[in-house]
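Sample A.
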Amino acid sequence: MKTIVFAVLLGSAAAAPAAASSAYSSDPRIELLGVVQLLSGKRPDLPADAAYRAAVEKAFAAYRGHPAVGRWAGDAGDMDGRAIDLLYFTDPPELAPLPGPTPPYLENAAAAARFQQFLAALRDFARKSDFMRFYKDHRSDYKRVSAAAAEELGVKDPLGAVEKYVGLRLDAKARWIVSPSFVPSHRNAYITPYPDPQTLPAPGPEDFEVATLLAYVPGQGPLGDVVTQRHRAALWQEPLFVFIDPALRAFDAARGGEAAAYYGPAVAECRKNGADCAKNWLVAALSARLDAQAFGAPSNLPDGRDPRRDAYMTALSARLEEYEKDRRKRRTLWEFMPRLMAVFPEKAGLPAPAPVLPAAKRIKDLFPGAGRAGAAR
């Protein structure tokens, strides 16, 4: 899925267990994977809490030669999204399939077969090592780490902050899973079902579910992809995509006409090839504004590495500041979309038509067949 951050945009679990009282919590499935990852030695820079790591080594050292560890070590690159896949199964040791969608990263038969082999080995590891006893014995560690992550991030309810900013109900549940041991390498976030009106004509009765995986490093805070990004983008990225994907599709449907005539040829081409720079720049600009409101300063402003991105980011951020200053006039970001999206034709030297948008109070209103036809503001 898109990734302007690690985001590993920490994938959203299609069937997460009962929601915790806090947005930040541990998860036994992810901790199990963290134990196997640690034993594999494939992340020598693993930023585990020193005391917790020592406890893991003491409890599970005898299982370093277990097939689950060997399969992780042999397929570590291929296992990149497997933490998210595990969220589609029950807790250890059963790890039984949950009803609902298929795990997202089983792209082909070969990948699915490898995952099933790893899953069988993981079940055996969990049973023989009595992993759940270890997990229950260390609940205080997980609570401590989750609380520390929440304190360092400084945002108790990231989903609520995004909903307040955009002014719409996102119809989403969200969890930020904090682990003292597991480190996602690239993909760490997912939304189920993904809010793309082209593939999801109308959402069902279930809310969108967003999961973001965070590794926690004492003194450094909660991280996403520890190689490429710091923690802040992990707060906002996936909830923002719950808004931006359907909003952008609905805006394009309302404006009509050829994409190149509105966005300019370069951005229109970028949108066609799967990168969808417009979508990613919008989310990046929104993340920067949410950072500014939460922390007093944006985090991902232009950095000189991509002049075109920098130019759009600067313009989009300035337009969003305009939105923030007059929320009485435009209560929702959806109502402000014509003004915000005008950045693209303006930068391309083209006219910026302002389409009449359908009314919307929640994200599901932006999907075809969701009762929005004919509604206009």
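Sample B, a different protein:
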Amino acid sequence: MTDTDREAIAEVRDLATHALRRVKAAAEIPPRLLDLADAARYLSMGDKALRSLIQRGELPFVQTIAGRSPYLLDIRDLDRWIEKSKISHSG
């Protein structure tokens, strides 16, 4: 094996190590936007019930292509909806 081969192998190894670190770091970031299925699961309800909330304007959503792409829901909006929807009984 030549010095050039060793240098090339070391460079590839460094690139692979860097790429692996980036993948691991990205996996540690929790998603802020959830698709319909994950948002429904987060709220412990079915897709139909969630769609109904969206259609009634109770939950805002994100669509990358208006009217065509799937709904994406901000987890912060879901948390606000939960807080707003809580019922407490006194007595």
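Observation for Sample B: The longest strand covers residues 33-35.
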